[in-house]
Design a protein that fits this description.
homodimer, 332 residues, alpha/beta, Rossmann fold, 2 domains, seven-stranded parallel beta sheet, 9 helices
């Protein structure tokens, strides 16, 4: 590839717009245009949507097919959906055209977990077309999977990996505050969580990615999700929660390997969570005990991971990739 | 390659023997033999040197050329020297034979720093012969370079990277306790440090590797090394130090980038150092503040890094590689 990466932004929601703005600031990226299904956005231009004058005249269209024929990107930043089948429907035509895609689709961080046949189909299409695709982000994609895997690189032996993340959701964007059930009745939200219709997406993908990277055969997964209930009235920039209402989630996934609980991922994300942090313990030889004070800030970091990954993706052979397949992450 | 990696251990000092023993325990490695210049070792066998019965009959020879012609390894674990020119003399013939080499040579973690022409020569020989070579370890090779680089993967922007490592040398092997000057007169040891004839090898290599990975042009490096002086008598498993004598080192390297100090590496390694730890701060957006409680144990982790890296090396194209070129580290 040339040193300049020509990029189309596919998905212009909050994360997509932030990714686009960060990408536009990189000297090694040229923004060609944007795609969003929202009729209120299509037909406008990226300068208008982002407030960045240098993006004036870069078109926004509703679908890939609506892009001008002269628009020939090297890479697509894809921020539309959490579901891999939904992402795949959008990405298969791009695979056939040999494009690179960095996607924020949570299930695509380890698509083999829920959709092995579809993952194989997209991988085959990428190889046939010379395309490279990857799902990533900060979580899933870094804090609870890639980073713990990386830390086992110093291990003679690994008995177990324990990962905790505590996020003060009051510091996060409004959609996340709503996604974690803020203000809902705990009983009703518990049902949504149990049905997988609320809460954090990607915990099982992170778990599966760590197990896969360590060559562990997972025999059983236990996953739990509980509302965190406010003990006092809470008011954020975006909403209010009364005492007794849901103010966030506590999700946990554990994997059994060779009859033992070898892998635990524990995520607490609620309004006002004290001492937010990420922690990773590798029980093994030597033991490794890592604390990230304050945690890795979600929204900023997610956008950064997408753009930074874009630079490394071209260094690997074509295919549908895992974040652990790429060279060591870095700021780009 | 086949799933089984056939390995020769080149260098049978303390680290080499430990690497060999760890490698011998891996189901994906077969040990073929060992090389050591020490006449007391050559002619014996690896079972005798390691105490591992399964290595009986695996020969130890003095030089590469003395290996039986039927010994055809895939990979060499190389643990002989800290100097890249000295390593290169041993490795150039192996490059021409298309071998894979994982080396503990500290200068080889970023050989372009002190020996760019020789690094280019070895890289060219590797490419011509289909060989892959890499220098790695826990420090240099992980804690003060690869891991900080990896953490910037979540960064929108990076203003500075600060890395500290505090090691209680009383918990380490005897050669390390001696290398840090234990028992020497501070004035004399300060001169050895200033001349680069004592202390930790590889701090400047780590600094250069971080800067290279972030695309930073280093304008100047300030490096300091001071003895740590014992304030009381100290007795370890291996030696004693009187109050007023050297009990370790405090080494520091700082890099100027664009007129600012953007990168600092600070290493304290002395007998009885309290609260040993590794710490990495990424000053940027978002800030990242990592503490590894207890630190990453040096000797065990070094050996683990060498063996774990062996599994990933075959996944990249031929050449002289940096640890940041390989896929994300992991236990193997």
């Amino acid at each position: 590839m040339s040193d300049l990466l020509r990029v189309v932004q596919y998905g212009l929601g909050p994360i997509g717009l932030e990714a686009l703005k960060l990408a536009a600031a990189k000297p090694w990226i040229e923004i060609l245009g944007g795609i969003d299904i929202d009729p209120a956005k299509a037909g406008r231009d990226l300068g208008e949507l982002t407030g960045l004058p240098q993006l004036r005249g870069r078109p926004v269209v509703r679908t890939w097919e609506d892009l001008p024929a002269t628009t020939a990107p090297d890479l697509v930043l894809h921020t539309t959906v959490s579901s891999f089948p939904a992402a795949c429907a959008q990405l298969l035509p791009l695979a056939r055209r040999g494009l690179q895609v960095v996607s924020s689709c949570e299930e695509m961080v380890f698509p083999q977990l829920r959709h092995p046949e579809l993952a194989a189909e997209l991988d085959a299409a990428c190889r046939a077309g010379g395309a490279r695709m990857i799902g990533t982000g900060v979580n899933p994609g870094f804090v609870m999977d890639l980073l713990p895997v990386c830390l086992t690189g110093v291990s003679r032996s690994v008995r177990a990996v324990h990962i905790q993340r505590v996020v003060d959701a009051a510091t996060r964007r409004e959609p996340l505050q709503r996604k974690i059930g803020s203000g809902q009745a705990p009983a009703a939200f518990r049902q949504l969580l149990a049905a997988g219709r609320a809460g954090h997406a990607g915990l099982r993908e992170s778990l599966a990615l760590v197990a896969h990277s360590l060559g562990w055969q997972v025999e059983a997964v236990v996953e739990t999700g509980e509302p965190v209930v406010a003990t006092r009235d809470i008011r954020t920039q975006f909403l209010t929660v009364a005492a007794g209402e849901t103010c966030g989630i506590h999700q946990r996934a554990e994997a059994q390997v060779a009859g033992r609980t070898c892998l635990t991922l524990d995520l607490q994300m609620y309004l006002g969570a004290p001492e937010p942090h990420d922690a990773i313990q590798i029980a093994g030889e030597p033991p490794v005990d890592v604390l990230i004070r304050g945690g890795v800030a979600g929204d900023q970091a997610t956008v950064a991971v997408l753009v930074n990954t874009a630079r490394r993706l071209a260094t690997v052979p074509p295919g549908l990739k895992l974040v652990t397949d790429l060279p060591v992450p870095r700021w780009a």
